[in-house]
């Protein structure tokens, strides 16, 4: 019998179109299938884990899917136009947002609109004008920006910690290697083991940004995102950000606009070689600076750079030397013709 | 996990005491805890069946997930008389779906003359197992009904020749004839490795 005939037979069986004889054959065959196979053996712990995992996935596909289905008509987040406006605002105020990132000083407030869903997912919508601090079941905290929406379970799963975000939020995650923490947004998944980072996921086609403050995170396109197949995940380190552009379907790493100082470091230099200054900057901000060490070896500077940001410090240095710099992905290229020997 | 029922070791005792019929009725009335209790009762059985038929834990898990998700989403549309046979039938249809897909893929592979990378052993074994299950169906198709039934009783229910003779009300010689015939057909049509297996079981 040809394979296509077998296919048709099975097809007919499923549609109830078999002759009684054929039906008996298929049923006899099915009952014989795998009867010599050893059964699936699980330890009690494995069994328990599998039971919980499967249930969680079933919930996601059934109860959750249904709880979210009314939103198809009327989304659980605010309307698209308001979102676009909010996104533009945040993107336009990059420095302001960064300021907030560096000084997370907004007082914690009670969640504004926690709606308990039937599946024990909590939905938090920040309708206030200030960021709001949410405490997750594992002790991690999430500072949700105005207009941000965070969906999180009342209890985390046994294998991983998963939340869903629309809009912007800063995450400070309790380290727990056994339970990776995942932030799902429309286009990308951010996986971390314990760190702090910012996710900005505006609705629509504006880029998704994941900024890392401490630790390291992995950002990968979501499987469901259109044509996600070929994009590899990127690992993002402190002061770097992953930017996903839905329009160009591109995921890349770059430096954040305002790198935060990561390590204590003196920026007072009294007649010091320029390479020493650059090394201090690299160390303090965890940033790679490429430069021609030989050309700069003879240059010395006297500077007090205590209060400025990384790029302001570089500006001052460039002015003093007649040099220039540019950002290239996650590196800084420092260009100088060097100094005339004294 | 985020669930209110399956997570605790002692889920709702109230529901645990319910009959399947009660649960089905409650399910139709959107009772999520009844749904969770149905899962508690049957997930392992269904997973075990799918696993043995497909020899793949991944496929078996997918079937169980998909089956329960569908059970919930279509709870109003479905007419369930008795729960367990209903669920086992649902598993059967899904197992057949998987085998059909594998068959299509195997056909494709054969046509395009692609060879499975030798180092990828798991895939190779899965493909072999599929060939086996479909070759078995092919062979059974070639057997007369009586022969098939004798073969099935012998293999599946491990009944001896005298037992089968009594059960089908035929002579032992006839039973032996059917078994010999079945083996002959299977020998001719199944692959060598399967014949080895059959001989071993015999």
UniProtKB/TrEMBL annotation, chain A:
InterPro entries: FecR (IPR006860), FecR_C (IPR032508), Ferrdict_sens_TM (IPR012373)
Domain of life: Bacteria
Domain called FecR protein: residue spans: 127-218
PANTHER family per the UniProt record, alphabetical: PERIPLASMIC SIGNAL SENSOR AND SIGMA FACTOR ACTIVATOR FECR-RELATED, PROTEIN FECR
Gene3D superfamilies per record: 2.60.120.1440, 3.55.50.30
Protein's organism: Hymenobacter fodinae
Short name of one Pfam family: FecR_C
Record's protein name: FecR family protein
Example of a GO MF term: sigma factor antagonist activity
Protein FecR C-terminal domain mapped to chain residues: 267-331
Automatic annotation (TrEMBL), chain B:
Span of domain HTH luxR-type: 140-198
InterPro entries tied to this protein: RNA_pol_sigma-70-like, RNA_pol_sigma-70_dom, RNA_pol_sigma70_bacteroid, RNA_pol_sigma70_r2, RNA_pol_sigma70_r4_t2, RNA_pol_sigma_r2, RNA_pol_sigma_r3/r4-like, Tscrpt_reg_LuxR_C
Protein name: RNA polymerase sigma-70 factor
GO-annotated molecular function: DNA binding; sigma factor activity
Entry keywords, A to Z: Sigma factor, Transcription, Transcription regulation
Domain of life: Bacteria
GO BP terms in the entry: DNA-templated transcription initiation
Native source organism of the sequence: Hymenobacter fodinae
UniProt record similarity statement: Belongs to the sigma-70 factor family. ECF subfamily.
């Amino acid at each position: 019998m040809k394979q296509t005939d077998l296919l048709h037979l099975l097809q007919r069986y499923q549609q109830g179109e078999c002759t009684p004889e054929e039906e008996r054959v298929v049923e006899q065959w099915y009952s014989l299938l795998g009867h010599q196979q050893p059964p699936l053996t699980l330890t009690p712990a494995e069994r328990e884990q599998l039971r919980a995992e499967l249930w969680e996935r079933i919930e996601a596909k059934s109860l959750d899917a249904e709880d979210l289905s009314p939103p198809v008509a009327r989304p659980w987040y605010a309307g698209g136009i308001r979102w676009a406006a909010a996104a533009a605002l945040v993107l336009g105020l990059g420095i302001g947002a960064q300021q907030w990132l560096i000084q997370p000083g907004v007082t914690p407030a009670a969640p504004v609109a926690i709606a308990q869903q039937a599946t024990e997912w909590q939905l938090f919508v920040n309708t206030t004008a200030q960021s709001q601090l949410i405490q997750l079941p594992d002790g991690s905290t999430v500072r949700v920006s105005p207009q941000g929406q965070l969906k999180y379970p009342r209890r985390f799963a046994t294998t991983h910690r998963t939340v869903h975000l629309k809009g912007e939020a800063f995450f400070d995650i309790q380290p727990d290697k056994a339970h990776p923490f995942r932030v799902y947004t429309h286009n990308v998944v951010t996986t971390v083991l314990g760190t702090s980072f910012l996710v900005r996921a505006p609705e629509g086609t504006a880029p998704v940004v994941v900024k890392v403050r401490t630790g390291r995170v992995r950002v990968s396109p979501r499987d469901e995102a259109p044509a996600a197949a070929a994009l590899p995940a990127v690992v993002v380190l402190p002061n770097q950000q992953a930017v996903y552009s839905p329009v160009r379907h591109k995921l890349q790493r770059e430096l954040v606009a305002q790198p935060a100082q990561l390590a204590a470091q003196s920026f007072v230099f009294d007649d010091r070689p320029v390479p020493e200054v650059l090394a201090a900057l690299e160390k303090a901000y965890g940033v790679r600076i490429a430069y021609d060490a030989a050309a700069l070896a003879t240059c010395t500077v006297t500077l007090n750079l205590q209060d400025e940001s990384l790029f302001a410090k570089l500006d001052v240095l460039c002015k003093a030397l007649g040099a220039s710099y540019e950002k290239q992905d996650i590196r800084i290229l420092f260009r100088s013709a060097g100094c005339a020997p004294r | 996990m985020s669930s209110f029922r399956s997570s605790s070791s002692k889920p709702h005792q109230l529901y645990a005491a319910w009959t399947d019929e009660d649960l089905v009725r409650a399910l139709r009335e959107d009772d999520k805890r009844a749904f969770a209790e149905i899962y508690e009762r049957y997930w392992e059985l269904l997973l075990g069946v799918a696993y043995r038929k497909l020899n793949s834990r991944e496929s078996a898990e997918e079937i169980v997930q998909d089956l329960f998700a569908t059970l919930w989403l279509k709870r109003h549309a479905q007419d369930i008389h008795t729960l367990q046979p209903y669920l086992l039938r649902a598993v059967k249809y899904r197992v057949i779906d998987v085998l059909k897909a594998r068959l299509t893929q195997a056909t494709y592979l054969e046509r395009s003359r692609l060879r499975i990378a030798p180092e990828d052993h798991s895939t190779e074994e899965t493909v072999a197992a599929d060939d086996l299950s479909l070759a078995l169906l092919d062979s059974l198709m070639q057997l007369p009904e009586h022969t098939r039934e004798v073969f099935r009783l012998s293999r599946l229910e491990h009944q001896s020749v005298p037992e089968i003779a009594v059960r089908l009300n035929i002579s032992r010689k006839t039973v032996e004839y059917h078994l010999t015939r079945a083996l002959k057909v299977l020998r001719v049509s199944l692959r060598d490795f399967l014949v080895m297996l059959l001989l071993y079981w015999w």
